[in-house]
Design goal:
Layout lengths: L2 H7 L10 E8 L3 H18 L2 E2 L7 E10 L3 H9 L6 E5 L1 E5 L4 E5 L5 H16 L13 E5 L13 E5 L1 E10 L2 E11 L6
The structure holds adenosine-5'-triphosphate (ATP) and magnesium ion (MG).
Length: 194
Amino acid sequence: MGRQQADHLDPATPQAREDTARLFFALWPDEASRAALDGMAQSSREACGGRAMKAAHIHLTLVFLGNVAARRIPELCTLAAGVVAPRFELAIDRVTFWPHNRIVWAGPGVCPDELRRLVEVLEEALQAAGFGFDARPYLPHITLLRNARAAPPPQAVAGIGWRIADFALVQSLRRDNASVYEVVQRWPLGVCRT
Ligand code: ATP
Ligand code: MG
C-alpha cells in the first residue's frame, strides 16, 4: 500500500477526519422573551449565587444531536423546513436546582402537548433520515445559572409566558474554553406547508 493511501486510512491524519459540527435544535427566544428569561436568571442569582447564563445564550434544547458531519447540515435544514407544528404559549413557572452539576434551571411545571409533539416530530424526522440524537425522555429545561449553591426559595422568582413562534438549529462552538452558541437557521411555527 502506498504512503498516501496509508495516511488516508489513519484516523489521526487530517485527510481522514471529517468536518463535524456540534448541533442541537432549540427554542431560541425573541428579544422580549430573552429579556424576561434573563430577568429570571438575575433574580435567581440573587437567591442562589453562581454565574448567570449570558443572556444571548439562553435557550431551550429540543433535540440534542451532538457531532454531525458538516456536509449534512443542508439535509438537516431541509428536514426542519418540513416540520409542521403549531405556535404555542410556554409558561416558564418552575425554577429548579440540580446539585450534581450545580445548575439552576427554569422550565414549565407541566410540559405542554405542543412542545412534546414538536420534539416528537423532529425526532421522527431525524430518525427517518438516519441522524443520531439523545433519545432520553424529554425534560424541557433552560439553564439560568452555573455554579449555584441552592434552589431559589419558593416565589423568589416570578414566572413568565414565552410565546413560541419558531424553532432553530443551533451550533455549539468552543471559544476561550467556553461554549458559544450560534443559530444556523430558524423556521416559523404555525404555517401550513404545502
Ligand atoms: P458546556 O458543555 O460547556 O457546559 P453546554 O452544556 O451548554 O455547555 P453543549 O454541551 O454544547 O453546551 O450543549 C448544548 C445544549 O444541548 C445545552 O442546552 C445542553 O443542555 C444540551 N445538551 C448537551 N448534551 C446533551 C445531551 N446529551 N442530551 C440532551 N441535551 C444535551
Ligand atoms: Mg454540555
